[in-house]
Specification:
The structure holds 2 protein chains of 2 kinds. By secondary structure, chain A is α+β, with helices and mostly antiparallel strands. Chain A contains 5 helices and 5 strands. In chain A, helix 2 (86-93) crosses helix 5 (139-151). Classes of the chains: A alpha+beta, B alpha+beta. Chains A and B meet through strand 4 and helix 3 of A and strand 1, helix 2 and helix 6 of B.
Amino acid sequence: MTNVALTVNGERREAEVEPRQLLVYFLRDQLGLKGTNVGCDTSSCGACTVLVDGESVKSCTVLAVQADGTDVTTIEGLATGDELHPVQQAFHEQHALQCGFCTPGFVMATVSLLQENPSPSEDEIRHALEGNLCRCTGYHNIVRAVEAAAKAGG
Amino acid sequence: MIPASFEYHRAASVDDAIDALGRDEDAKLLAGGHSLIPALKLRIARPSVLVDVGRLDELRYVRDDGDRIAIGALTRHAQLAIDPVLRRECAVVARTAALVGDPQVRHRGTIGGSVAHADPASDLPAVLLALDADLVARGPDGERTIAASSFFTGPFDTELAPREVLTEIRIPKVEHGVYLKHTRRAQDWATVGVAAAVVDGATRVALASMGPTPIRAHAVEDALARGAGAAEAAGHSGEGAEPPSDVTGSGQYRAHLAQVYVRRALEQL
């Protein structure tokens, strides 16, 4: 077992983990943060996307020990009280989800994108979301939501 | 999918990593983990110890060394894609890094990890081969430089000794360089990748996913040197290649794609 100490959604967390523990299962099973979904489990679908030190990563492909000392943000860490994050609000208003399973990953990927590129073109948005799959095929509204979030300063 | 158990050692330095590799013959280096962790999860890889070099920030840099650019092995794809020195002096590497995987993968994956993993379908190894890059490795007996042309020895196999750590990639300054890849879907591996660059006045071409390692298309280069045009030279793309047949395409299809993409790459140079 190895000790890890990291910040998750602004809160300091310390735990003992097996070295083979994946970050997504650490978040879901040890910390109870079930908003991050496991989809394909092969680093393809992006449902498990979280931010590590502000950058989007697929948490099914990161070991918890690799996140030691980092600052992790999950979907639970975006809203401020009852006030949704601008990206969440935009996904809500633009109907950017159907079943919703992929949504936490898309939202986190979008937050990361807008930090790197605050006003992306439609083409840039589509390329930047290449690592996230929506099997309801709702991509058009997702792209609209990202555009709306960018305009809202998300 | 859960990896098999392993011990974990976070290296404090390159020398510490070399020592740790020496303590267990089944130890393996972990950089960004975006090739290794999927393999661990599938249990294709079952190392006894993971030696994590991912925190060695001293191996994350792009430096102008006069006539060459030196890239620290742990520089992530996302950093390569936006690095101003690289974009100015050897933009083909920055542009290729921006095509690897997807944004999440590029935030974690490193150039050294990609090169050492030596997947024959990888993008950057083909580009480094076309550029005739030098790969710097450090082991218990010190440092040595391996030419890209002799680095890749087989699928997922390299010239690196078990206790060597790839520390730096040195590339020439190149104005004209192109990397094109054909993929079936977004974020897929290259069905075929083509790297072309003008190095010291000569056009060099390397192919991804056209053999057990990235390969140089010497017959194309020779045709160009004789004065052939892009289309004629591209007709030689399959010579010396051993394109695999798999779910993404037959060997025959790959050979066809290589001709098309070599011609396009040469036209864009």
